[in-house]
Design goal:
The complex is a heterodimer of chains A (340) and B (327). With 340 residues, chain A is an alpha/beta fold. Chain A is built from 12 helices and 7 strands. In chain A, the strands form 2 sheets. In chain A, strands 1-2-3-7-6 form a 5-stranded parallel sheet, with helices on both faces. In chain A, strands 4-5 form a two-stranded antiparallel ribbon. Chain B is globular and about 60 Å long. In chain B, α1 packs parallel to α7. The longest helix of chain B has 15 residues. Chain B folds into 2 domains: 182 residues, Thiamin diphosphate (ThDP)-binding fold, Pyr/PP domains (Rossmann fold); 127 residues, Rossmann fold (3-Layer(aba) Sandwich). Chain B has 327 residues and is an alpha/beta fold. The chains are: A alpha/beta (340), B alpha/beta (327). Chains A and B meet through α5 and α6 of A and α3, α4 and α5 of B.
Chain lengths: 340, 327
Amino acid sequence: MNDRPNMPLPDLYRTMRRIRSFEERVAELYVRNGTAGSMLHLSIGEEGAAAGVCAALRPDDSFTTHHRSHGIFLARGADPNRMMAEIAGKSDGYCRGKGGSMHIADMALGHLGANAIVGGGIPHAVGAGLSYRRLGSGAVSVAFFGDGAMQQGVLYESMNMAALWQLPVLFVCVNNQYGMGTRIDRAAARTDFAERAEVFGLAAMNVDGENVGAVFTAAEALIASARAGRPGFLCVSCFRFYGHGRMDKSPYRSAEEEEAGRRRDPLLTARNALIERGLATTAELDAVDAEIANEMDATIEFAIAAEPPPLSAMFDDVYAPGEVRPEPMRMRLERILACT
Amino acid sequence: MAMQELTYREALRQALADAMTEDNRIVVIGEEVGIYGGAYGVTRGLIDRFGAERLVDTPISEPAIVGAAVGAAMTGLRPVAELMYVDFLGLVLDQLANQAAKIRYMFGGQIGVPLVLRTQGGTGRSAGAQHSQSLEGWVMHTPGLRLAMPATVADAYHLLRHSLTLPDPVVFIEHKALYTRKEAVDLAVPVLPWGRAAIRCAGSDVTLVAYSRMVSVAERAAEALSNEGIEAEVIDLRTLNPLDMETVAKSVIRTGHAVVVSEACLTAGPAAELVARITEECFDFLEDPVLRLAAEDIPVPVSPALEVATIPTVSLIQDTVRRMLNR
């Protein structure tokens, strides 16, 4: 653990436990047939990245995320009930059940949107940075993405623009080693990602995601730098504990590799550090864990009990309220058949 | 205001300048939009009036240009992203079709993406297969995107002004062969509302449905047909989303004959959609099959001799209508 006087380690632990606990409930809801589909990407093993970076953000900062981003939004302060309801496709969800796990967004918390296109949300953070500079707001926008996006062209266009225009933007690669079933060394000849960002003129760092304190410290420095006009890049290395989605049993990696990867557990590492430093006792942490488990258990019941969106909502929000709406096909048929 | 002689290009520039004066959230982002003044000169001089912070010259990075415009539109600006040629749509379709078009819906109506993607398309300059296409069908096929294609100088101004007030993304496709088109216009005189098609020329024998440059081709055909005693009604769609089928159907129900004229490729193109709708909605009133006059299903060749033959012409429309009406 990094030593810093104001390191909010107990809070970071709590955030990471909430993420872990929530993701476990997502898996449970899936098994209980309560999720909308199986395209659920758990961020277990990546909690250090989410908790460490989000703790360094200001309330007026914004961010875009990728398909494996429940944890990032929770770290930002999301309501787990509304998240779970969204994952279940219910109208109480953040996006009224139309977005689902991969498209959660919340303007109130500066979440400009999770994205199911690898790299798709990265330039949005650049655009947000452009807005903040023009409007003089002083906010920073963070683009979160996985190591898979490190091989997408739009990332390099975006990094170049941010550096060229000195925008308040931070790029955060959550490097969990795998783009679906392809390990980074099968996707790139050189896997030091910070060195790529550096050549674009970004303040770039690699950090070990097992150490949430180190992530927090690095993010804090890079966000301050971005706010001052030097955009940054942070690669947080971690390990994706489970498969790509719920259907993936990870046949592309060995049990040994998984075992070694899961030993790089940011949650356990933080827990041990808290105890070693005398910041918390095992009993206290157990109590925190139990309280969080109760809170997260309730999300399952909330999501199951929530109402699905009414069919009439289907045509809402394709365009803004009051604008010309799409004509439902069935209505169109009625109109035409009535005339013949 | 008074009557003034303006080109299509000048009207677009005037629309941007007037809108930018009224709304300081508007920024123009694109390749060569600032110092160079736009590949077709539309933004020429604007950087002197509004500065480099609002006329943002970008690297050649189309996906990030449109993607940054999406992000800027979500956070308080009203960006105009310029795509130099509509042919570059292939580079930006993710940002346009997966992001801009879907954000309001996917996020449950929390936020819209009020951006305008200005671009230009069409043949007429021997620009070749990668700089001459008419790809409006790609946009029409994507719910969430509005689509305007002005045919006249007045519409170049007014449709762009209106696009810059809309809450949703608008793809605004200009025609490269129209930039020098000149008209005497009074910009203070209001035009039809957004989403309404215009009847450019009234007639009772056949309805010619067109948009963008094909409107003037259809108008010339109507004029020639009129000399032969055939009265063609020319409808300028102005916007393809929304699509004003009411005006089209009203006309076709009256004339009983319809020809759709488009510069996009025939197969699965905008003309096919229009024919399907006219056929569904006006079947009992049609005296003949609705016909499509569209671009050949081939890449656009450079040679002027070939290029001009790939798209509908005045004489093709004339001849088609004559034969349709057995005259």
